[in-house]
Specification:
- By secondary structure, the chain is α/β, with parallel strands linked by helices.
- It has one domain: 3-Layer(aba) Sandwich (Rossmann fold).
- The chain contains 6 helices and 7 strands; from the N terminus they run E-H-E-H-E-H-E-H-E-H-E-H-E.
- A 7-stranded parallel beta sheet has the order 3-2-1-4-5-6-7, with helices on both faces.
- Helix 1 links the parallel strand 1 and strand 2.
- It is globular, with a radius of gyration of 17 Å.
- About 2% of the residues have low confidence.
Length: 243
């Protein structure tokens, strides 16, 4: 018997990286998945990996910055499965540069995906969960929410803001049985970093499956308990002491 048997989970950014790792872990534990991102091809790749193993996977291409597409994602979930138990907000982008050189376009793009997209998904998930008296919303943050890197102000700012959104969601959800959590990964080997790990001075890294262990632990907690905020990072990563 899986830890998530009978649960319905929406996972954004599930075609690659951390989102795909979480999808893999949730499917293994019996959840039925609705996976979303802008890229249909990568979503189909995730589904092709999981469905032969017995997983139920619904692919819904979605741009989380588009309100109508986010609304349609959650409407489709309820139409297909009748409820929503877990909503994982994982879609995100990284961009930056020196503050004095940042364009408004770059800043706005990161804010739109990393913050506004999470808000839109949270809002639609909250409506469903409030009506059914319970559910979990899990946001994927970053250790940059505590310790920013140089030349990454849009990313760090949005991850700081996600902490506030998570806590506000948890507060408003309390009386409705809705929990909200934020999971802060350290360095993870994902597609955009694939070429940066071969050198001798490469930073310590984890895999998406390592982060998925923590995301599964949050999702599998009893309904009356919540892991509000957690950090998972390589033991050797320069985090403590770098501030």
């Amino acid at each position: 018997m899986g830890q998530l048997d009978g649960k319905i989970a929406v996972i954004t950014g599930a075609g690659t990286g951390i989102g795909k790792g979480i999808a893999r872990a949730y499917a293994r534990e019996g959840a039925k998945l609705v996976i979303a991102s802008r890229n249909r091809e990568t979503l189909d790749g995730t589904a092709a990996e999981l469905t032969p193993k017995g997983a139920t996977v619904l692919v819904v291409p979605t741009d989380v910055t588009k309100e109508d597409q986010v609304v349609a994602l959650y409407e489709r979930t309820v139409q297909e499965f009748g409820r929503l138990d877990i909503s994982v907000n994982n879609s995100g982008v990284f961009d930056g540069g020196p503050i004095e050189d940042l364009s408004l376009e770059t800043w706005q793009h990161v804010v739109d995906v990393n913050l506004t997209g999470v808000f839109l998904c949270t809002r639609e998930a909250f409506k469903i969960m409030k009506a059914q008296d319970g559910g979990r919303i899990i946001n994927i943050g970053s250790i940059s929410a505590q310790m920013p890197r140089d030349n990454a102000s849009p990313y760090a700012t949005t991850k700081h803001a996600l902490v506030g959104l998570t806590k506000s969601t948890a507060l408003e959800g309390r009386e409705h049985g809705i929990s909200a959590s934020i999971l802060h990964p350290g360095n993870v080997v994902i597609e955009r970093r694939a070429g940066s790990t071969a050198s001798a001075d490469a930073e310590p890294m984890m895999t998406p499956d390592d982060i998925a262990i923590a995301a599964l632990a949050i999702a599998a907690m009893p309904h009356y308990a919540n892991m509000l905020e957690s950090i998972v990072l390589p033991v050797d990563q320069e985090y403590l002491g770098r501030g």
